[in-house]
Amino acid sequence: MPEPIMTILVIDDEPMVRESLASCLEDLGYAVLLAPDGCQGFEICCRQRPSLVFTDLRMPVMDGFEVVERLTQELPEIPTVAMSGVGNVGEAIRAIRLGAWAYITKPITNLDEITITIARVLERARLVRENLEYRHRLEQLVEERTRQLKESEQRFYQFFFQHDDAIILCRVPELVILDANPASSKLFGYPYQEILARKFPLFFATAEQGDVIAGLTHLTGESFFLREHLQAKDCAGAELIVSMKAWSITLGNETVLYCSLRNATEKIMLEKQLQDSQTRLIQAHKLASIGMLASGIAHEINNPNNLIAFNTDLLAEVWRDSLPVLADYFRVHPGFTLGGLPFGEVPATADRLFKGLADGSRRIDAIVGQLKQYSRPSAAGGAGGCDINRAVTSAVTLLDHQIKRLTDRFELKLAPNLPPVRGFSQQIEQVLINLISNALQALPGRERGIVVSTARDGDRGGGMITVADEGAGMTRETLAHLMEPFFSTRHESGGTGLGLSISDSILREHGGTLCFESEEGKGTRAIIHLPPCVAQGQGAIP
């Protein structure tokens, strides 16, 4: 496709000069426009936008200086060449200062001079035009990039302010906080302005600050700092556990640290509660298995114990029958001994040994009976009522070894002629075993004692059992939570926190109550109130 013909405007008040220059320009292949003065010339420029303007400097109406000045101000893309027949250097300088691109003198006798001037001016115009186009494109790119950055920042800050996690931006290496979202104030409890007045590590426990500072100040490139459990503190000094992830980002011309924090305190507490519940569930299964095992052991012990009891009676009878014969032999042989003992000491020793065997066998039989009853509760026990003295005695029997191991001062006070109370004996024994065990474990030494007593409940008409110890006692706060499931002051030593909660549930099912009185350093009293047994057919426990 052929290049378009360039148009050149010639402005001169002398017709001969105008026509002569136009002829030369046409010979060079340009289209030519003519104007007799500056006013018409400027109007032509505004309408047709020529590629180049030749203008005389000295003209009526509007001289060339004004043409150059107005074109420079209003149409700077059109180059101008000033012409003058005077040959005054001062005029040339003035024209150039006003914006003329070149200057030639009249009369124009050298065609090469015109050719060179036009080529130089048009080349300069081309470069100026390309530069303007480049600057325009560059400005468009800058404008588009600025718009994109603004949109990106708007999205970032929308994400920043609406995010549920605490987000804190800080400068490295000083770790001075530059900005924080509302979730940060919610997490740490500080107002926004107070957060900006702090350095980031000050939110963490003293033991954690060194690790946080070292981790954050050495972040480079795409690396990140991640900690699942960091000990922090809020504005009131309360302990928090947070998880944190931090990495470097660029905001504007500055590289800052983006720190995202999440409160993990509740999560960790729930995980710990779940772990504790699983441990207690396992322990409950173990206790159930132990109960079944105890029942089996009771049966296995019962058989050899029956053999011991029977053989003890038989051996005692044999001994009594053989004693006269041995006495006669002793009279003949005064130094006679049995088992290394002089015969004179043997009868009393043998009676004591046989009595001990019989008492031991009866004690084994009593313990086995209690284990059987404890591991297999009978529904019949509730219908006929419960003898609280008997229940207390059974519980003490089962705990006899533990009592003798932990205290030298155990006292049992049983009131006579107590009415039967409502409930199952085995379940009342379970409550008592738990209360007496707790009292024993509360004693700081063997010199401290425990008193278990029964009495008639005058106000309610039933029975009352009291377990009083001289242990360490409890605070008001501990007493307030004592019946809560899984609450225990002895988790480290194996306490499950279920004993008192279960005991309270058992007594409430029986229509009874369990309450505690305690004073730090002076011991604790556990008091059981049980309602009287209702006659058959009048609401007895089925």
Automatic annotation (TrEMBL):
Enzyme Commission number(s) of this protein: 2.7.13.3
Chain segments annotated as transmembrane: none
Domain of life, per lineage: Bacteria
Keywords from the named record: Coiled coil, Kinase, Phosphoprotein, Transferase
Histidine kinase domain segment(s): 296-534
Domain Response regulatory positions: 7-121
GO molecular function, one term: phosphorelay sensor kinase activity
Family annotation (InterPro entries): CheY-like_superfamily, HATPase_C_sf, HATPase_dom, His_kinase_dom, HisK_dim/P_dom, PAS, PAS-like_dom_sf, Sig_transdc_His_kin-like_C
Modified residue annotations for 4-aspartylphosphate: D56
Keyword Coiled coil part of the UniProt annotation: yes
UniProt keyword Coiled coil present: yes
Coiled-coil regions listed: 124-155
The reaction(s) this protein catalyses: ATP + protein L-histidine = ADP + protein N-phospho-L-histidine
PROSITE patterns according to UniProt: HIS_KIN, RESPONSE_REGULATORY
Name of this chain's protein: histidine kinase
